[in-house]
Amino acid sequence: MNLKPLAASAVFATLAACSTTAQAPSSSDLSAGDLNSVTAAYQLVQFDLAECDVLKNGGATPQTLTISAKICADAAHYQGALQQLAASSSITLPNDLSYDLKSRVVVLSYHASPNINAQYLHDAIESHEDALAIFENEAATGTDPQIVSFDKGAIPVVQSNLDALRAARMAGN
Predict the structure, then answer these.
(1) How many CB atoms lie within 10 A of CB 3?
(2) In this predicted structure, what is the pLDDT of residue 111?
């Protein structure tokens, strides 16, 4: 029996099960922008939680840990809210980080103190800026009232965290 086709099928099935974007049934009225916003929310939440796990392993300054703790608490809250939103809108959430975000988590895990602080702040600022732009666009142009409401609620939290991250970077953390 030739096991190569079976192994290839297993790898393909595993890869097919990984998704980095939100999906909705074809019968859904959700727009591409709606799904893009849900994807951005998922990616930000999961990235924040992954970075927090890395920072717990040491090397970060107390100031960075304080900021990340708040961001992690916000991410945990929004993770539950996002799951509820997805369930009520028949959205299948992604189940994997994008390659870019995964690679940032790996890079962060190899930084020693004090560089881990600078790397964390850089990555967190960039991810929050990206998500904020998507949330603001969706809040202004979105078609699904639940997703627009979710984004409008997330915007001040993401902006506040972004402001704290920028201030920490300016302070040299």
Answers:
(1) 8
(2) 79
